[in-house]
Amino acid sequence: MKPVRENVSAKRAEITGGFWKEKQDLLKNVTARAIWDRFEETGRFGALLGKTGEGIPKPHIFWDSDTAKWIEGAAALLLHRKDAELEAKCDELIARACALQAEDGYLNSYFQVIEPENRFTRRSQHELYCLGHWIEAAVVYDEATGKKELLHACEKYADLVDRVFRAEHSAAFDTPGHEEIELALYRLYRHTGKEKYMTLMRYFIDTRGTARDRSQEERDQSYHQAHMPVREQETCEGHSVRAMYLYSAMADQAAEDGDEALRAACVKLWHNCVSRRMYVTGGIGSSHVGESFTEDWDLPSHAAYAETCAALGLALFARRMLRLDLKGEYMDTAELALYNGALSGLSLSGDAFFYENPLAYSPRYSRVVQRWGSKGVHHAIGERVKVFGCSCCPPNVLRVYGALQEFLYGEDEDALYVHMFASSRAQTHFGEIRQDTDYPRAGGTAITLPGGRYALYVRVPGWARELSVTLNGKTIPSQVRDGYLCVQGPFAQNDCLKVDFTLPVLFLRANPKVSNLAGKVCVTRGPVVYCLEEKDNGAELNDLAVRVPSVPVIRQDPAMGLPVITLPGSRGEEACGALYAAEAWPRRNCSLTFIPFHAWANRGENEMQVWVRAE
Amino acid sequence: MKPVRENVSAKRAEITGGFWKEKQDLLKNVTARAIWDRFEETGRFGALLGKTGEGIPKPHIFWDSDTAKWIEGAAALLLHRKDAELEAKCDELIARACALQAEDGYLNSYFQVIEPENRFTRRSQHELYCLGHWIEAAVVYDEATGKKELLHACEKYADLVDRVFRAEHSAAFDTPGHEEIELALYRLYRHTGKEKYMTLMRYFIDTRGTARDRSQEERDQSYHQAHMPVREQETCEGHSVRAMYLYSAMADQAAEDGDEALRAACVKLWHNCVSRRMYVTGGIGSSHVGESFTEDWDLPSHAAYAETCAALGLALFARRMLRLDLKGEYMDTAELALYNGALSGLSLSGDAFFYENPLAYSPRYSRVVQRWGSKGVHHAIGERVKVFGCSCCPPNVLRVYGALQEFLYGEDEDALYVHMFASSRAQTHFGEIRQDTDYPRAGGTAITLPGGRYALYVRVPGWARELSVTLNGKTIPSQVRDGYLCVQGPFAQNDCLKVDFTLPVLFLRANPKVSNLAGKVCVTRGPVVYCLEEKDNGAELNDLAVRVPSVPVIRQDPAMGLPVITLPGSRGEEACGALYAAEAWPRRNCSLTFIPFHAWANRGENEMQVWVRAE
Fold it and tell me: Starting from the edge strand earliest in sequence, which strands make up the sheet with B431-436, in order?
């Protein structure tokens, strides 16, 4: 295996302009505060006081993870932005957590208050998942502020876990029901340099799905990816967020240890995910039952679950795969999720959220499903809300997009990597690298380089067209391999590499094996997936067809943050009333307005469709 | 309103050859006996003995209707075929029923044995539905054998119902939860000439959905079409079999009374059904929840409920609409149901049945739905079974197809009507009319006429092409209006009118408002809907596409009873593994074998699709 390239960390990289800068500003100014208010109101933050009694809501087993993710998100925003209020709130919450922590290191606002006798007895109860999020918050908060109280608390808790689970086997289960601790331990190991956390991480990864691990199980093992040892897994099974966190940790361990079997499993799982079970938006997990992957080619649009956290998890997995394997498809896919299936989880106003991200919505379909579907049937909501009972997605949006700069750059001994485009700067061991770009409103990026003897790899997205590359104004050859352009140095300080490409409007079709997408196309431009919304196109979106191919009109739209696309198409004549006919249906021409998928449902409840009939 | 044309009754018409003769022979030789055996085994026939105790199954509230429909079916077959065994069994069952009947006329093997104190107290409990089926059985058995015991018993029971419901209002409800009594009373009125049964029928029709009728209701009124007075109803709502029985009775009453408001309601309901809510197979009732209609354009293929009884009910409604309105679309639609969505309820062997008739089936879809659908989720079975817990469909198939000749001819004062094609003869008041035809294996029919001064109307199906008409070998003009060719008499005895047309293979498309059928076509030939089955075409039917247009190869298939069609098409290359692409998918040509929809699932469980991707 080749030496591992590292991502340039969120602390050492900074987004300085453009679409993602605007989103990060919104996260700091609106989202972080909106979630804070909701978590205060619902008792999540109060739960850390460890009190019970009249008027105090009973904590939920995963409330600590919500709080920890909020701290991690606030900390990520503090990396490059001062905000005394956010920092003070983090300090207060961390102080509560440290005060609550038990003598032996245990920390859980549910079990310590409600069921102290039952700690580490139920695999499904999210204790190690919560610790994982505490650890991630602690690492980022230390990076942002240098304050180490939470880090020390987490280390103490992790040491307890190491003793109870790995050394003594005295817990009632071997591996957690909801993965997260594994990748967090890797992060703790990398942050502290302490090998024991890597050892514990390996223990959890290597134990999962073994005969002993399975013997304690009461429910379908594949729900939490424990149906077989992880190195033998070839298809994405079970709860999609858990799966992504596990696969992310597997990729971390494979990179750390040069573990070829683990790497091969990651590659197989990746391909099963993106080539068989992923929505075109980067959403994953088709079914609300178990919030799960289902089977190959099962990608219903209206009934899509496609949890925000799962799309975020796919991006996290992709970023880690890049350490193992320099292939453009990883960031192509991460961008799909980040610009579409995950970002749709956040309103344009920054203070409302989707948990599920269906690819089609209609009030009528919801009504049909509610009334005529099966008992206990499920359907997505059509407007974002401020908070959920299970409100994992909002703070996950905050922490992942708050540290989005970690996706931009990579480095190793003899190379620098530009994985993703955003106006930004990053400190590498060769010096500062900068990008100036209006991506994805337009194609291309201008990269200002540090001087040095290294190779520069720049990702060229799979959908990019008309590539041209100049170094200091002079055209240079632009051979692309596996989605990366490679320019060999040495480079002089402030050499400027311009990579230009167009963002064509594409009409994607789904593999014919996806039955429900026959005859339909998805309009994309660069990494951005588009949809039709009733507000722009009238009701009965089913009845609209887009002309393929046709020439798009692209108009920047400041409210949506990304361009709006107009394409010619048609709709059925009003009088066209028959149900079946051998002749062509009478249609009249019309103009169709496509908006970025992530921006749907910001103008009231209405119909939406990603996959549109082609004509 | 024009004078009403009558259907030539099943007693006066007889099918003498061809596809339907073969089916009626199968019904007599296999189906009637298979259902008999199952109903004996399950205790349905035994329930009429009115006994309870160890080893005697507890009767179900609708068992009497199963038995009555079996008698009606056997009676229909006895109209033109001797069968001492069937007749003896009918006699035995009728003797049991008459012995069970209470002094006051009440007859119900459930309530008399299990809850004698609760008769006529619960609207949902099918008492009047069972009586309706007893009446229909009694009328046909009298016609077939001249034996009137059951008829007399039914009259006595109907008189009790008239007193309790209409005169005294002493029942706990006003109109039954499952319609059927209404059309049966009309039949009883026509058979006996007794006006009181027409009065009682009108009472039930006119009372349904009135404020008083609704006041006693505990559940959604639209479930049994009681959400508003029947003359105000414009959309097909609720349980689809109940709806069809109600609309059939409404059409009977409209014809009998020249009731224009009732006729107008029937026409609106008809159009809502066939132009918005009917499967291309003539199946209706999209959802298993309440076995119900849902909303316009909601016609899922895999999840289709499309109960056999509902398609039969649509044919019964269509036949009655023809009395009100001479339009080809009624029999075009009835044929759709009779050749497809209802006939699929019967195996080619004659002894196994479908209750539901989905338009697509795959073992994988069933697995996905079972595992990943909602709690209590529903999916159709993939192979026919011998009997159901709720086994209404098998005897319904027996009685409707057993009397199928009633669909063929109509008459009024100055005209004869040929509505449907089958080798047959019928006694009209002008004399005997005969058809000689191989329909629908081939197009056209040769009609031998009685002499007389009348007009002859012959239906020309909407899909028919290349029409030519000869009278005694000489071409005559062939003007078609509203789907009927009219030839003015007078005619000489044995004049021969030959109506020839071709049965083109059509590629039907669904209205674009039906989202899930985008890009797909349904192959039909004449009234017969075709489907792909895995046995002929391999697995992954989703991945097949049929060339549109293309030239079919038609091959008669004795096993299926109707031709098999071969068409060119394509399937995905094995290597075609990506999930989304802007380029065309690599495909290779193949030949697709389409079989008649009704004949699917006769060779073991396998995939099936009616709607096929078009290329």
Answer: B13-17, B423-428, B431-436, B445-448, B496-502, B465-471, B474-475
List pLDDT tens digits, range A392-443: 999 999 999 999 999 999 999 999 999 999 999 999 999 999 999 999 999 9
Report A:454-493 residues touching B (Cβ under 8 A): 463
Q: Contact A506/A576 with Cβ under 8 angstroms?
A: no
Residue B376 near residue A373, CB atoms below 8 Å: no
CA distance B128 to B119: 11
Closest residue on chain B to A286 (Cα): B372
The SS3 of residue B38 is: helix
Asked whether B130 and B119 are in contact (CB, 8 A), the reply is no
pTM of the model: 0.92
In the 3-class helix/strand/coil scheme, how is A3-23 assigned residue by residue? CCCEECCCCCEEEEEHHHHHH
Nearest chain A residue to B572, by CA:
A512
Distances (CA, A) of A374 to A271, B369, B370: 33, 11, 11
Residue A296 contacts residue B365 (beta carbons within 8 Å):
no
- What confidence tens digit (pLDDT) does each residue in B516-559 have? 898 899 999 999 999 999 999 999 999 999 999 999 999 999 99
Cα separation of B83 and B241, whole Å? 31
Q: The tokens of A525 are what?
A: 């431009």
- For A504, the 3-state DSSP assignment is coil
Q: Which one-letter DSSP state was computed for residue A456?
A: E
DSSP conformation letters of B455-506: EEEEE--TT-EEEEEEETTEE----EETTEEEEE--B-TT-EEEEEEE--EE
Residue of B297, B513, B576 lying closest to A511 (CB–CB): B576
Three-class DSSP category at A466: strand
Of B376, B514, B520, the CB nearest to A374: B376
Sign of torsion over alpha carbons B274, B278, B279, B282: negative
Q: Tell me whether residue B91 is exposed, middle or buried, using C-beta atoms within 10 angstroms of its C-beta: 0 to 12, 13 to 18, 19 or more.
A: middle
Q: Are strands A580-581 and B505-510 parallel, antiparallel or unpaired?
A: antiparallel
Q: With contact defined as beta carbons under 8 Å apart, do B615 and B570 qualify? A: yes
Q: Are B292 and B240 in contact (CB under 8 A)?
A: yes
| Subunit contact B579:A514, Cβ cutoff 8 A | yes
Closest chain B residue to A587, measured at CA: B512
**Cβ B452 vs Cβ B491: under 8 Å:** yes
ipTM, two decimals, is 0.93
Q: Which of B513, B542, B582 sits opposite A542 (nearest CB)?
A: B513
CA distances from A67 to A11, A110, A129, A288, A399 (A): 21, 13, 12, 24, 11
* Cα A184 to Cα A191: distance, rounded to the nearest angstrom: 10
Tell if the CB–CB gap between B372 and A540 is shorter than 8 Å.
no
Whether B200 and B249 have beta carbons less than 8 Å apart is answered as no
Q: Coil, strand or helix: which one is B127?
A: helix
Q: Name residues 322-381 of chain B within 8 A of A (Cβ).
A: 360, 364, 367-368, 371-378
Residues 6+ apart with CB under 8 A from A210: A229
Beta bridge partners of B592: B567
Indicate which residue of A130, A392, A522, A531 is catalytic.
A392
| A305/A301 Cα distance (integer angstroms) | 9
Residue A138: both structure tokens together: 């602690």
Q: What are phi and psi of A434, to 5 degrees?
A: -130, 150
Residue A481 contacts by C-beta under 8 Å, 6 or more apart in sequence?
none
Residue with tokens 């309530």: B111
A189-221 pLDDT, tens digit per residue, is 999 999 999 999 999 999 999 988 887 656 689
